[in-house]
Amino acid sequence: MVSSELVLRRGHYSDLTAVMEIWYANETADDPQPPARPALLSEYPHLLDYGDLWMAERDEIAVGFSGAAPRGETTFLTDLFIDPRNHSEGVGNKLLQQALDPYPRESCFTVSSSDMRALALYARYGMQPLWPNFMLHAHKLVPGSFAGHGLQVSQADPYDPEYVGWDAAASGRVRPQDIAFWVEREDGVSLWMEQDGERIGYAMIRLRGGSIWQHRAARLGPIGVREPGHATAVLMAAIDWTMQHTQHLRVDLLGPHPGLATLLASGFRINYVETLMMAGKNPFFDPRCYAGSGGALF
Ligand SMILES: CC(C)(COP(=O)(O)OP(=O)(O)OC[C@H]1O[C@@H](n2cnc3c(N)ncnc32)[C@H](O)[C@@H]1OP(=O)(O)O)[C@@H](O)C(=O)NCCC(=O)NCCS
Q: Is 88 in the pocket of ligand 1 (CB under 6 A)?
């Protein structure tokens, strides 16, 4: 029975234990042998520093949270999680509005889980489902199987305005704070990819970008190019570089990305499929030219 009043308020550092409990309860709900609950995911302090965290409470007990990361002209809904004991009571809808209503409607986008309630709430908010987002992983790739890309790979300065500019062009958002987060918190390494002396792409490889299920995995992304014709070679070069460091890899690709078939034919497996949903009429990035960062920042 729903009795007491729902209170929405801004989240603080002191809320992060409750945030982790609600996140973990949802993420491991169908897992017969769930991994241990981490004390904290570093993306939540980052969200507090560079975005909005909203809490929903009843009787001063947290029942859900939402998050938004405004970057330039865009607003990414980073999180929407309700305590499973309070699902389908209207809390998610209120937290969604609280997170996104302060921003222009056409700036809003997210990647939805397969939860029908999430898909319905986002569509009703005006975000159209545009593309599937394949969450891929690999841990037994054949050594050298991604070596034939023919590109020169070199380390980039992640704070170089040119690197930030390439990421802004590919992702549709200027976000040096997120690039610094990946470098400082997830051992991110920035790369340039060149072909015959011409720069054709960039990548961020996060060597400590694992999940609670895949601790040791490196996370590839963001990875971007300016021409769709370069997307597969740059992706392969990023995978080849990462394989020098670890055999456990994670990368997310949107349905139209030209490299999707190559990866699936070369040992990558699909973990989960999300749906990218966007409110504006014109997508502000090209899904053929951009592989997102995964996690809560896309
Ligand atoms: C998804 C989630 C955040 C939604 O929050 P919630 O509080 O449970 O949802 P609400 O009660 O506010 O709204 C759900 C709406 O979906 C509608 N809905 C439910 N099933 C539906 C279906 N199969 N088709 C269409 N609409 C559906 C409901 O009718 C309801 O709308 P209404 O209140 O106007 O009737 C919550 O269920 C959750 O935490 N799920 C697990 C984690 C998750 O996947 N989060 C999304 C991350 S992207």
A: yes
Residue type, 22: I
Query: Over 90: is that where the pLDDT of 109 sits?
Result: yes
pLDDT of residue 3: 62
Q: Global pTM?
A: 0.96
Q: Is 117 in the pocket of ligand 1 (CB under 6 A)?
A: yes
- Across-strand partners of 206? 188, 219
Cα torsion 230, 232, 234, 238 to 10°: value is: 170
Q: How far is CA 49 from CA 69, 115, 267, in A?
A: 10, 28, 38
Specify the pLDDT at position 234. Answer: 98
Nearest to 221 by CA among 284, 129, 289: 289
**Ligand 1 center to residue 120 CA distance, Å?**
7
Q: At what angle do helices 161-171 and 176-185 cross, to 10 degrees?
A: 110
d(CA 283, ligand 1 centre) in Å: 25
Is there an atom of ligand 1 within 6 Å of 93 CB? yes
- Binding site membership of 109 for ligand 1 (Cβ less than 6 Å): no
As a whole number, the mean pLDDT across the chain is: 96
Tokens 């405004």, residue?
A: 70
Closest C-alpha to 147, from 243, 257, 20, 224: 243
Give the pLDDT band of residue 123 (cuts 50, 70, 90): very high
**Which residues share a beta bridge with 10?**
54
Contacts of 45 (CB under 8 A, 6+ apart): 13, 16
For ligand 1, say whether the CB of 87 is within 6 Å of any of its atoms.
Answer: yes
| 28 C-beta closer than 6 A to ligand 1 | no
Cα 271 from Cα 290, distance rounded (Å): 19
Residue 200 φ/ψ, nearest 5 degrees = -125, -5
Residue 87 to residue 92: CA distance in whole angstroms: 8
